[in-house]
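May I ask you for just one protein sequence along with its backbone structure tokens in two labelled lines?

_____
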Amino acid sequence: MGFDPWDAGFVTDPYPAYRELREQGRAVWSGSTGQWLVPHHADVSALLRDRRLGRTYLHRFTHEEFGQQPPPPEHEPFHVLNGAGLLDLEDPAHARVRRLVAKAFTPRTVERLAPAVERLARGLVARLLADGGGDLLAAVAEPLPVAVIAELLGIPESDRGLLRPWSADICGMFEPRPDAETARRAVRACVEFGDYLRGLIADRRRRPGDDVISAMISAHDEGDGRLSEQEMVSTCVLLLNAGHEATVNATANGWWALFRNPAQLDLLRTFGADPEKLSTAVDELLRYDTPLQMFERWVLDDIRVGDTLIPRGAEVALLFGSANRDPARFARPDALDLVRADNPHLSFGAGIHYCLGAPLARRELLASFGALLAAGVPPMRPVREPRWNGGYVMRGLRELVVEFTTY
């Protein structure tokens, strides 16, 4: 089976296809997606840092100048929301917004949340244990990052049920060639979520709190002024979408990988609450089955990848999942090794688009895995083989039903 992001079998296990791609070359043309696929770790890492590529081209070219059709007018709410967020901005706008957001979303903010993250994780695991098991994804993997992001942004508890459906609908647009219904749901979610956040921002202007939205309102630079309302809205949505979807999938994918590698799961149980060993294990789980499989970039100026000249106007697909299994960079890449010391995985990206929320994601993963490994929690095992949610770019399970056992 070759590279086919719409095929259920490929989504279930893309790694054999990645192996074939790496053997075919450093840049492989995909007629089905209309992209140059880049499967090797060294190339993906270098191109993430190469300013001849961009998440957008509109800072330098019009659609017509770049040989692209403008998006349909009815998609405008999505592109306005996405275009003002850090993920799709390029310098100099990216540097300005990231600097201002960083003033609000600091390492100290993440550390301040740490006790709450751990308390939430313990509570979710306790409920799952009291029930004798259940869907690990719905019981722990989903609610933890939603609650943390909501706490970070200051979203009232009564409104938090709105967040995951909005996030899932918006993220559907990041899959290759989304259909009309996916686009319709994404646009509606952008409008509804944007309107909700504007109301929340207006409230924080009147009554500042101890949250990231209030901090973004007050963040400013001498020369760069403040974040616009749209930039704040787009940043909040990105924090939810990137931080939440990726953490959910990393948690469930990680446990499914452990269940399929029982010797490594037994090893993980010996780590207990050792934060250093657990952190190394989490990095390996992120490498082994990354929740973000592909990151797309536009070629702004001609580039050469190996013997292939890729012209301006083309699109490249940087295959994180393949890069993280590249035998040229990782010893025994298809083996799960929870004590792997040399692990420069690319699951959080690199360069100017390196994930701003990586420290928070790590904190959440350490808390949830730690709580499920804590003394007094009996071993888990899957009740049945899980189903995948169908998405390729943000690849994850639809469910992971588990039970606790005393064997």
About this structure: The longest helix spans residues 229-259.
